[in-house]
Prior knowledge:
The complex is a heterodimer. Chain A is an alpha+beta fold. Chain A has 5 domains: 6-134 and 305-321, Up-down Bundle (Four Helix Bundle (Hemerythrin (Met), subunit A)), CATH 1.20.120; 136-295, no CATH class; 331-387; 391-570, 2-Layer Sandwich (Heat Shock Protein 90); 575-715, CATH 2.40.50.180. Helices cover 40% and strands 21% of the residues of chain A. Chain B is of the alpha/beta class. Chain B has a single domain (4-124), classed as Response regulator (Rossmann fold), CATH 3.40.50.2300. Helix content of chain B is 45%, strand content 18%. In chain B, strands 2-1-3-4-5 form a 5-stranded parallel β-sheet, sandwiched between helices. In chain B, helix 2 (35-47) packs parallel to helix 3 (66-75). The longest helix of chain B is centred in the N-terminal third of the chain and has 13 residues, at 12-24. Chains A and B meet through helix 1 and helix 2 of A and helix 1, helix 4, strand 5 and helix 5 of B.
Amino acid sequence: MNGDYSKFLQTFFEEVTEHLSVLESGLLTLEQNPDDVEVLNRIFRSVHTIKGAGPMFGFTTMSRFAHKVETLLDPLRNRKFSATRQIIDLLLESADCLNMLIEAAKNGTVIDENKTVLDLEARLETCMTVTAPAPGQKPAPGPSSATPAPPAAVTSASQTYHISWTPGEDLFQRGLNPLKLFEEMGRLGTVTSCVLATSRLPDLADLDPERCFLSWTCTLETDYPREDIESVFEFTAPPGGLTITALSSSSPAAQPTQEPDPEPARSVVNEEDDPQLAEVFFGQKSDSLGAILVEQKAVTPAQLAKALDRQDTIRANSKEQKAEVSMRVDTEKVDKLVNLVGELAITQSMLSALGGRFEIKHLPILQERLLQLERNTQEIQKRVMGIRMLPIGTAFNRFPRLVRDLSAKVGKNIQLLISGEETELDRSVIESIGDPLTHLLRNACDHGLEPPEERVAAGKPEQGTIRLNAFHEGGKICITVEDDGRGLNRDKILAKAIEQRMITGNDTLSDDQVWALIFRPGFSTAEKLTDVSGRGVGMDVVKRNIEALSGIVSIKTVTGRGTIFTLKLPLTLAIIEGMTIRVGEDTYIVPLLSILESIQPKADMVKTLIGKGEVVNVRGAFYPIVRLYEVFDLQPEHKNPAEAILLILETEGERVVVMVDEILGQQQVVIKSIEENFRKVDGVAGATILGDGTVGLILDVRGLVKLARQEESIAV
Amino acid sequence: MSRVILVVDDSPTMRGMVTHALSEAGFETKEAENGKDALIKLTMMEEGGTKPDVIVTDINMPEMDGIELVKEIRKLSAFKHVPVLVLTTDNTDEKKEVGRAAGATGWLVKPFDSELILKVIRKVLPQ
């Protein structure tokens, strides 16, 4: 068997993950618009694919479960009944369950008769019975050689039997008609499936029409005892030619499964027995190619057993494969790159031709070629970074569900509006942005938005709105989480901060500084702990996560109107936009993201305040000055702030002013870790190679702020 | 000259596995994501003066499903004699009848057994 499909396992998981998110978002759409057939078809297809592909890797439980879900989706899709809130709840739970099964499969864990799965399967079936007007009591029409049996009354005591019948080859010679036997069997109950197997049929040339090479497998629901079924087939089968197995007692309205479950099939049929076969060529006739009589086979028990053996191997392999991280890249992106690299090669060959016979009169051509090289390089850099870019929508996907569940939990009516899903950013950033955003949304649901009564009393619509938006702004990505709730309460935050001794009552703080308090570890103003949020862990984690991504969080809030959290993140972690500055003879890089402005102060703007050290007065606000040459022990050009340049930097809502000799310019720099190659250096975030080949250090703004604070305390 | 099989399935996993099994057995494979895509690929092949020897298609696909595809293929003079094998999870007799009536040559069931697929394909390959 050329069945090494383990290398498709990764593809399968990627695909299934996409299908799951289709399923979930589809269900949420459905909740708003229960009769959207487009959506129903889409989610049906997703579940269908999981069901179909799962068993190829031995994930039979996953497939069986998907089948159950599909059975409920099918009548919805065919408009037999429409999706109620209960059904959607159940389907969402099923989506979670599928997710669990998939996660388990990824980890190589076998989930078999898991309680959640069984429980949900039972509920899905119940849902079908309760909702469906009259789910399929009708027997499947048998193949041409068998006759559909008339339906018989089925009582709750009925039993389902699996009958596998291989009559002796002399059946016809003895004057027996299989059709009659099936009719007789039909009188005993309902034949829910009847499949003709023709695997033993010889080629046409060798076929003796008087001999019977056929066999059948049927499922019969009946009240009659097994003996009665046996008596129907009495004397027709050689020893071993007839097996009757009780499957399970079935409830009257249970939907007959369209496919035999793999599990029972395996236990019922033994390998020498006539296998469960399905016809490939629709019985005897095939329109286009005329009558083809072939050996017809689908999955034999032997093959099933083989597949089951194989799944152990695949599971073993899947563990090893887990470490492999792959990503799918749009072919178009790769094609563009190939094209660009081609151009680069052309530019390079033009340059080397020029270099081979260079004369000074060629200088303008050289400059032109170099410009072209620069353009090529920039374009390639952009495109290569683009390979790692994904639309942020992939991170937003889970939020509609989250907010839906939360709104039920906190008893508020909340709508989530998402925009800018198509905004692209680095996939590693996307992966890390999920948790902080989840937290912000939880907070908005729980604290930000008021309970309905309070909203109505305040003259607001009862339904609270949370907006999640993403957009590009100056080489950064901004993500905003905005609620139209009560806004942050300055007094409450101050009181809490004083109570928790984060500040003293004497401190005068600006609004921004007050809002920044909620990012301190251990801070919580919630009066009571709720299930959703408010354990005092959270906002500090949000901030730390964002900062780990070299991003910043800021808050804007209007009492009674709402709060906006803005996350600003670099598009990628490997490259930053930097401002190169000079102190003495050394070049440093300041992350552009943290620069607010640069000034050349007048002498009277710089003061030394008791308890604050040296500060500069910028439009009425005093910021501590850090003299970079003191920090790094350099020989500066200017020691007088009035002659130097001051950069106002901001991080975590705090500002610090760094004194430098000169601003050289803006450039993109590739961050190289110092810690990995040397050790941690205070005030330095990393290093990079500058245009002239020397190493430039990237300033750590947070570290500098800390340094300024230490000076403050020394100055005290 | 190797025989060409067109594999139509919206699931990349399935497509990958089927084409893998076929190419290991020495077939040349072409892929299409759905019925519509398959018709486009067929048209392109026709323009290039080639055609697939066998088409293997899924049923449940966006844009155009497998049944529609079979019907369309049977209308095209260049392709109406190409054997079309359905490969699907659907295993009900009703569905099979629909497939047969539409003009499908054979009905294979997922999860599939590559040996069986190969056997069936060899059977239906035009001489």
